[in-house]
Write a structure and sequence with these properties.
seven-stranded mixed sheet, four-stranded antiparallel sheet, 13 strands, about 0% helix
């Protein structure tokens, strides 16, 4: 059971990147999936998540209108499309879920309009650097 994030890189302000979160050993669409980020010297924060029931999405205020989370069930992958990137988006980005066989880190919670969603199954991070 594993999660793997990819797609990070160096991009100029105003540019775009698409991050991918691929799962092995389980079906991503059976679980809520979250994207978190951690900037240097800061705590890890929840950026976005997508429900496994009805596809409801959530975004933190700072990325609303710029980031889009989506699923491709055929590819067992969740994406985070990031547009209009800003220097303050620079961080290591992680995808996460709550899988009983992959409890490999701290539990962080994203509070949505449907209630809090815990995440404790983490993939390795991918670095996004927004700089001119």
């Amino acid at each position: 059971v594993q999660l793997q994030a990819s797609g990070g890189g160096l991009v100029q302000p105003g540019g775009s990147l698409r991050l991918s979160c691929a799962a092995s050993g389980f079906a991503l669409n059976d679980y809520p999936i979250g994207w978190f980020r951690q900037a240097p010297g800061k705590e890890r924060e929840g950026v976005s998540c997508i429900s496994n029931t009805d596809g409801t999405t959530y975004y933190t205020d700072s990325v609303k209108g710029r980031f889009t989370i989506s699923r491709d069930n055929a590819k067992n992958t969740v994406y985070l499309q990031m547009n209009s990137l800003k220097p303050e988006d620079t961080a290591v980005y992680y995808c996460a879920t709550e899988h009983p066989d992959l409890n490999n880190g701290d539990t962080l919670v994203i509070v949505t309009t449907d209630g809090p969603i815990p995440f404790n199954s983490w993939g390795q991070g991918t670095l996004v650097t927004v700089s001119s």
